[in-house]
Design a protein that fits this description.
By secondary structure, the protein is α/β, with parallel strands linked by helices. It is built from eight helices and nine strands. It has helices spanning 40-48, 80-85, 93-102, 107-110, 119-132, 149-166, 177-183, 212-223; strands at residues 2-11, 14-24, 29-33, 55-60, 65-68, 137-141, 169-173, 186-190, 197-202. The strands form two sheets. A six-stranded mixed sheet has the order 5-6-7-3-8-9, with helices on both faces. Bound molecules: adenosine-5'-triphosphate. Adenosine-5'-triphosphate (ATP) binds next to helix 1.
Length: 230
Amino acid sequence: MLTLSHLHFAILQDVIVQDFSLALQQGEIKTLFGPSGCGKTTVLRLVSGLDKPKSGKIINQFNKIGFLFQENRLLNNLTAVKNIEIFMPTPDRQKIYALAEEIGLTPADLNKYPTELSGGMAKRVAFLRLLLSDCDLALLDEPFVGLDRDLRQRLIALLQQRIEQKNLACLLVTHDRFEAVRLSHEILLLSEKGMQIQQSIILNTPLSLRDNQYEEKTVKQYFQGRVYYD
Ligand SMILES: Nc1ncnc2c1ncn2[C@@H]1O[C@H](COP(=O)(O)OP(=O)(O)OP(=O)(O)O)[C@@H](O)[C@H]1O
């Protein structure tokens, strides 16, 4: 379980996070949905310990955090497959190749260095690295940006499996309202500055029952008439 209580964070006079609170349980996905620059990535950085809050409290009872950064952060001196392997509790190349195939990556792709991959390929490698690690809390910052619809669906399906089989908890940042309703148990709609929660949308339908029709209907129900950020 993760609990954030009354977090404040500022850079010089610029208040970025103001009195932000949230709780996350095992197997739960909560999404931070808000305009660019409102402080979503900063909250992920606070949770991971990369930044320290000026005040407020973070209680993290999860064992291991996996962080999928917007910019992937693969190690350029290792091949793609090695980048994944070093985060696996029990390295297993066949398992990597099998899962990679499901998202359109061949063994030849995985034997390349990150600088030899396209942006979308590097994104998928970083995603596999997180999925095959033994993290029990995943921080996902725009994990599907730059991927076509079909690949996006396949990655989402893999993530859903992992959440259901291993009880993975996720804090997701996305600008895509369809992604948000497909994957979240709760969506927090945020204001332009300071991470003020304007509305919380609770979605109780099991993830395995959410299809394209559910996405369309739910987006219409909650997002119609709103300013969209994607
Ligand atoms: N290293 C930094 N130095 C100064 N200001 C920063 C720094 N990092 C972030 N900020 C500021 O903090 C605010 C929040 O940034 P953050 O990246 O958390 O927003 P975000 O909601 O994740 O945005 P996006 O959706 O565009 O990724 C922004 O106004 C940004 O200018």
